[in-house]
Amino acid sequence: MTAEAEQLRAFPSPFSIETPEGCEGWEEMYPPWALFDERRREHDENRLWFWNSMHFPVPMPAFDMVEVDTPYYALGGWQNRAFAVPGAMGVDYRIVNGYVYISPNPVTDPEKIAERSRFFQQRAGYYYENWDELYARWRERMEALNREVSEIPVPGLPEYEPEAVVFEGGEPSWATLLASYRRALDCIERMWQYHFEFLLLGYGAYLTFSEFCKQALPDIPDQHISQMVAGIDVVLFRPDAELRRLARLAIDLGVAEAFREGRSPEEIEAELGRSDAGRRWLEELEEVKDPWFNMGTGDGLYHYYGSWHDDPSIPYSSLIGHIAALQAGEDIERPTRELAERRDRLVGEYEALMDEEARQTFRELLGLSRKVFPYVEEHKFYCDYWFQSRFFNKIREFGALLARHGFIEEGEDIFQLSRYEVMQALEELALTWSTGGEALGPHHWPQIVERRKRILKRLEEWTPPPALGRMPEAVVDPAIAMLWGVTPQQLQEWARAQRDGSGNELAGAAASPGEVEGTARVVRSLEEISEVRAGEILVCTSTSPAWAPIFSKIKATVTDIGGIMSHAAIVSREYGLPAVVGTGTATSRIRTGQRVRVDGTNGRVTVLDG
């Protein structure tokens, strides 16, 4: 093996990563099993770990680790223990300087794969055969859970208990407090259980269709397979559709001038409130908010994302863009007709290349993929946005209570404590409130919170390598390639970029066809989304369907992480925008203001100026 080949086989050892200056002690924010440990060195050092920047682009606050542990054991439970997906068990994770790295656990024993296949076919088959009924029930359960988490009581710990506790056998406030916190954690565990129940099957149907296509049509590009499932209406695109309707209404009512670039939502609403037409528009907005403003502002996995209810800057930024486009005579609708025509044309062309038996199988698998595909995106509205924003707001109520009693300086500080530490703080609060004793918490937790805030801020300045450990000979879990874009070829590109440094060419997955040139807008945080201007090319770690409203403003998308069925790829295709995903390093190699060319047909990005 040549020196170059050997160099391209390995990424940095996870045990060689140094702690950034000023971040010493970062490990205390995370549970011991989340860390690389010398006692697992041989096991961990000889496998590939890649930064899951799609879901966790910035360092994890201590409490937000509930969004790492809980989904991974729910994913593993369904994938490994319930459905017994033949080739994949679950996903291991580790934290490096606050960032989440993951590594899949494949099944490689042919006998075990055959055994699991029997389980999977029976259990997945039941879901596919009863999909509509089961999915309708799922929606009801999720809507009930979203209501439940909002209604959890957080008692104020009064000076004296209400009479109902004394005379009617009511639950004491301290017991309600502790039970309510446990119930909130129970709700998020159930949400993640619901989240993954159908998701694996949605991906599984697409994978089966994809594998059949590649077997029957060896030269078919991945992009054509995904395009044959595109153009399907899903709940997730409804919020943006409502914004487009509101944009037209603003023009029809003659209040469009209130929506000027750079104005805050508060400024716009203040001007609208001064006229009858403006107030009519605001009344229509209120009708739209339930449920469509439950849309998230990010992927829902960090406490500060919230929903459009919490931060209306995204929908208002979109309204401004939609109104400007309409006034310029532009079409602001998603190109659903063009997508459908392209989809149907591809289907017809590929069917013509098959014999009758293969054509029948092709139609059945394509029909199943289209049937189950909406869930792949819709679950995010119900789970990642609607539930998550309400869950974190409920935790804020516990934070406000702790702040009132001096355990933390302000309510938001609760997210600097792990979910276990929050329980400790609440238990001591319940104890000392009940007894009238002196609490240690106000002397203990505030300094921990301040130290962790400083560490997280410093860790945000560190750029994690895209991967760690040993490069595998093959990536056996197809979902890893489909969702994250981690393929042997892409890993080689990441390793080559790491070795050779920057250049003006980046390679990734060809996620959505077309070629455009434009000005780059690098977005690394939620706060920067509102800075995106019409006609720019979005460059980001990954996108979330929550960003869908800005896709009518931009010309193309480039991401660090993601595969052909990542959310960035799906949303780009649904909006007819060129996209290259999974480049590994786009956000560190491209600067805002640079001219770039995005070739979404061939998966290439070129920086056109210095």
From TrEMBL:
Species in which this protein is naturally found: Rubrobacter xylanophilus
Give TM segment ranges: none
Write the lineage as a comma-separated list.
Answer: Bacteria, Bacillati, Actinomycetota, Rubrobacteria, Rubrobacterales
Annotated ranges, domain PEP-utilising enzyme mobile: 534-603
Among the GO molecular function terms of this UniProt record, one is: transferase activity, transferring phosphorus-containing groups
Q: Which residues form a coiled coil?
A: none
- Cross-referenced InterPro entries, in alphabetical order? PEP-util_enz_mobile_dom (IPR008279), PEP_Utilizing_Enz (IPR051549), Phosphohistidine_dom_sf (IPR036637)
- Recorded protein name is PEP-utilising enzyme mobile domain-containing protein
Could you tell me the superkingdom of the organism this chain comes from? Bacteria
